[in-house]
Amino acid sequence: MKMVERINIAWALGIVVWMMCPCNIRAQTVLLRDLSKLEDTAIQSFDHDHIVLSNGQLLSWHQIVEAVDSESHAAVPKGRRAAFDRRLRQFGKPLFRVFHRLDIGDIEGAATVASKIFEQEYPRYRSVHHRAIEPQGDQDNDQPTLAQQAAVESLRHDQRFLLASLATTRQLSQGDREKALLAFLVAAEEFPFASNSLVKQINQGWSSASRESHLISQSAVDQFFIKSIHPIWFDTQVAKSTKAAVENYFRFSAEDPKTEQRLKPVGVEVYLISLQLAAISPDDVGSLDTIASRLETLKRRVNDNRMDRSSKPVDSVDNQLANVVGQLRAQVDLMLGKRELAKLKLMELENATSVTLPFSDFLLSYYPQPPAVTEKVNQPSNIAESELADQVIRLIGVAANAAPSESDLAAAAMDRAIEICVAVGDKETANRLKYELMTAYPNTWHAKQRDRRR
Edge-to-edge strands of the sheet including 29-32? Predict the structure, then answer.
C-alpha cells in the first residue's frame, strides 16, 4: 500500500475517533456499534434483554457502544447509570462478540463466547409460557405498546436461541452433557419463534465448518430430544442440580394445571426421569416402582406420537424416543435386580426395531446387579475367570461400537472394564484400557474422574 493511501486511511480513522469521542459531544448521544450516533437521544428504559430510546427505537444490548450525557442532561434515567453500564459491560459487549464472530464465519469462536453468556444468563430464564414470572432486573414502569411488546419478544427469542443453540454444541464438545442439556431445551423451545434468517445463519456457519452434526433438526425440536445427549448420567450431584434446573425452567402455573402436559413434552420427561435415576439408590424400591409406572405412561404417549412406524425411518426422533423409553424401563428392572426381565424386554425392543441398540448392551454389562454378582467381582475367586473375561469383552465391544455421540457410554463401559480387571489382578489389561480411556475420551466424566485421582 502506498504511503499516501496509508496517510489517508489514518486521517479518516482519526476523524471517526474524534467524532465518536465523548468530549466532542455536546448533546445527549447514543453511540452505536455501526459507528453511527444518535444525537439528542437518551435511554428511556431498559431491562435484561433490550433498550428503548427516547425516540421509541428498540435496541439490543449488543448494538450500543455508549450513552453519553450532555452538559445539562443525563443520557440514562436518574439513578440507573451504574446498572446500565454494568449490563452493557457484562452482556452487551460479549453478545456483540458473538454476532461479530458469526458474521465473519467463526462459528466455533461464537460458540465459545455464547456458552459463557448462556451460563451467566440461564438462572433467570423461564419457559416462554412463564415470562411473566421471569425476573427482569432493573426495569422502568413505562407500559410498552403492543408493537413494542411484539418487537421485544422477537428480539428476546432471537437472543436466547442464538446463545442456547451455540452453547449446546460448545458444551457437548467439552463433555459437559448436563450443561448441554439445559442449553438444548432452551434452544428447542425458542426455535419456533426465532427468525428464519438467524437460524439459517447459524446452520450455514456449522455447515461451513463441516459440523453438520451440530445442526438442531426440526424433529429434535418438536420432541425436545436430541440423539447426541443420551439420557444416562453418572455424576449424582450434578444430575440432581440439573434435574432441579430443568424443573424450574419448565414449571407450570398452579392456576392452569392443563398446561403441565403441554409444557413437558416427551423428551423433557425422558430427560427428567433419566436424571432422577442417576440420583436414586437401588435400595429405594418405592421410588423405582414409581418411575417404572411413569415410564409405562410415557411409553403410551410415545406410541401415540409415532403413529405409523412404517412411514418413519428407523433413526427418526420418534423411534429413538421409543427405544430410549424401553431402555430406561429395562434400566429400572436392572436396578431392582430383575436382570432376566430386563434382558427379555431389551430383546423384545431390538426385535421390534430390527436394529442393534448399543445402549442395551451397555446396560446389561454396566449393571451386573443383583448384589450377588457385585460381591463376585469384589471376590474374584468366587467367579469363573471366563465369565469375567466375557464381561470385559462385552464392555470393550460396547465402547468399540458406540457412535461419536455416545462417547460417555463408551467411556463408562471402558471404566467398568478397568474396574473388573483391577479386581481380578489383571493390571496389564487395566493399564492398557486406562490409556485408551484417557486418550480416546478425555472430555468424558469417567476420564475426568480418573484424571483427578492420579
Answer: 37-39, 29-32, 64-68
Q: What is the model's pLDDT at position 390?
A: 82
Grid cell at residue 418 = 478397568
Q: Grid coordinates in use for 333? A: 428392572
Helix or strand (DSSP H, E) at 68: strand 64-68
Of 203, 173, 278, give the one whose Cα is nearest residue 183.
173
pLDDT at 370: 36
Give the per-residue pLDDT at 186: 93
Q: Which positions ≥6 away from 368 have C-beta within 8 Å? A: 374, 377, 391
Task: Give the residue from 187, 295, 139, 300 showing the smallest Cα distance to 231.
Answer: 295
What does the alpha-carbon distance between residue 153 and residue 229 come to, in Å, rounded to a whole number?
Answer: 29
Neighbouring C-beta atoms of residue 317, cutoff 10 Å:
23
Q: Which residues of the chain have pLDDT under 70?
A: 1-27, 129-144, 212-213, 252-263, 306-315, 353-358, 368-385
Q: What are 51's strand-pairing partners?
A: 46, 59
Cell matching residue 8: 489517508
Integer CA distances (angstroms), 153 to 131, 160, 166, 271, 299, in order: 10, 11, 20, 28, 35
Burial class (CB within 10 angstroms; exposed 0-12, middle 13-18, buried 19+) of 10: exposed
Give the per-residue pLDDT at 439. 94
The H-or-E segment that residue 241 falls in is helix 236-249
Listed in sequence order, the residues at least 6 apart from 136 whose beta carbon sits closer than 8 Å to its beta carbon are 47, 48
Closest CA to 345 of 321, 332, 393, 358: 332
pLDDT of residue 405: 74
Of the candidates 247, 279, 239, 276, the residue with the CA atom closest to the CA atom of residue 264: 247
- β-bridge pairing 58-60 and 37-39: unpaired
Of 46, 203, 176, nearest in space to 116 by CA: 176
Is 163 in contact with 117 (CB distance < 8 Å)?
Answer: yes
For position 3, what pLDDT does the model report? 47
Asked whether the beta carbons of 137 and 47 are under 8 A apart, the reply is yes
Cis? peptide before 404, omega within 30° of 0: no
Which of 392, 358, 397, 409 is closest to 233 using CA atoms?
409
What pLDDT digit, counting tens, does each position of 154-182 carry? 999 999 999 999 999 999 888 899 999 99
By the 8 A CB rule, do 148 and 58 touch? yes
Q: What is the pLDDT of residues 2-16, one digit of tens each?
A: 444 554 454 445 444
CB 446 within 8 A of CB 414: yes
Tell me the one-letter amino acid at 192.
P
